[in-house]
Amino acid sequence: MKATMCDPSLFTGRYDDSLCAAMAAEGVDVTLLARPMRVTDAIVPQGYHYDACFFRGSEALRPRIGEGRASRLLKAAEYGLSCGLGDLSALSGADVAHMQWLPLAPADRIMLRRLKGRTALVHTVHNADAYHSDARMQGRGYRDLLDLFDALIVHGETTQAALERQGVDPACIHVTPHPPMRLASAGPDDLALVPDAALPRLLFFGTIRPYKGVDLLVEACLSLWRAGHRFELALAGKPFMDIAPLLDRVRSAGFGERLIADLGFLTEQRLDAHMAKADILLFPYRHIDSSGAFLSALHHGKAMVTSDAGMFATLPPEVAVKTPAGNAPALAQALLPLVESAAIRQALGARARTYGDSMGNWQDMARATIAIYRSVTGA
Predict the structure, then answer these.
(1) Which residue spans within 84-200 are E strands per DSSP?
(2) What is the CA 65 to chain-centroid distance, rounded?
(3) How many distinct structural domains can be found in the chain?
(4) Rounded CA gap, 116 and 109, in Å?
(5) What is the DSSP letter of 360?
(6) Are residues 20 and 139 in the same domain?
(7) Which domain holds residue 229?
(8) Residues 115 and 255 in one domain
(9) Same domain for 78 and 133?
(10) SS3 for 173-228, per residue?
């Protein structure tokens, strides 16, 4: 069987790499179509092909024009041309074209219509609200694209139910649980770049977006600091929102020395170093279906605090401390015993690691995905 995986912007590179490698090990001829890799990417294709066919021009200009409005407009124009006029033979020539992310719905509609009937179309719906209502044009029309696919893959009942409420045919939806992931491991140089913790350290890592609730976390931390509790807060990742006011609040309140802000596109190794040096990992998301960040952290065996949104609501109570989504006072209350007790942190972290070990693996995911491919191709 020949399958082409497509994640044009490489939104979930570690996920793509893990699944492609596992399917290749099962004998599938797999190609991953994406953008050129950056220095912050850690993908080394094992058994599958990587074709950097998207965003070649905008990626080449990225060091000079940055990440602002001009870059976004250039990327949108380039992607639109690729979808409307580009060579789609790598997709149409496969038995299955599997779309991981659809980065610009108006352009994706054109591409999918060009492919419809020429190959089986499969899409992984990582989140039923694809861009969490903060993507503007990027996600406009996304729901209508779902009807063009022969099969939709989701990672849990939360997403399945959300799609069914949106009118998606239940027969097209396939649930395949998301296995834990591992980022590239931090080496000595990576660990040296992250300061050692002087106090218990809380970590929020990954892309920083409004729906992830970093503002709630800062509010909760400020209330605990003002009450005399001693701990550090580290923010590690690329902001896709203005967080300067949040950082200013911490500094103006006199707690700047307890804040570690490592902002920007970080390597997987750097993120892994942050997790290694943290004591508590935070996921105060307002809404989410499944969280790759959470699943990439379980093996570190650190105490986890999450909201009760999406997949977090289904976690066993012993795996993570859950708080009501959007509630900063409740988050502060949940953090307090963890900040104060190393024993509680260690016990919770050990249970998180054990839970991760029990969640299945990428070979299981590959076999389930291949079975879905066969169901839509008749192979």
Answers:
(1) 96-99, 120-124, 151-154, 173-175
(2) 25
(3) 2
(4) 10
(5) -
(6) yes
(7) 188-358
(8) no
(9) yes
(10) EEECCCCCCCCCCCCHHHHHHCCCCCCCEEEEECCECHHHCHHHHHHHHHHHHHCC
362-377 helix and 13-25 helix, angle to the nearest 10 degrees = 70
Q: Are 343 and 337 in contact (CB under 8 A)?
A: no
Cα 126 to its chain centre, rounded Å, is 9
Q: What is the pLDDT of residue 215?
A: 97
Q: Are residues 208 and 332 in the same domain?
A: yes
User: Per-residue DSSP letters for 229-275?
Assistant: ---EEEEEE-BSS--HHHHHHHHHTT-GGGEEEEES---HHHHHHHH
Q: How far apart are CA 79 and CA 28, in angstroms?
A: 28
CA dist 134 and 242 (Å) reads 13
Helix 105-115 with 69-85: angle, nearest 10 deg: 10
**Measured in Å, how far apart are the chain's first and last C-alpha atoms?**
8
Do residues 262 and 234 lie in contact, with contact meaning Cβ atoms separated by under 8 Å? yes
Give the tens place of pLDDT for each residue, 151-178: 999 998 889 999 999 999 999 999 999 9
Cα distance between residue 61 and residue 238, in whole Å: 19
Give the chain's residues under pLDDT 70: 131-139
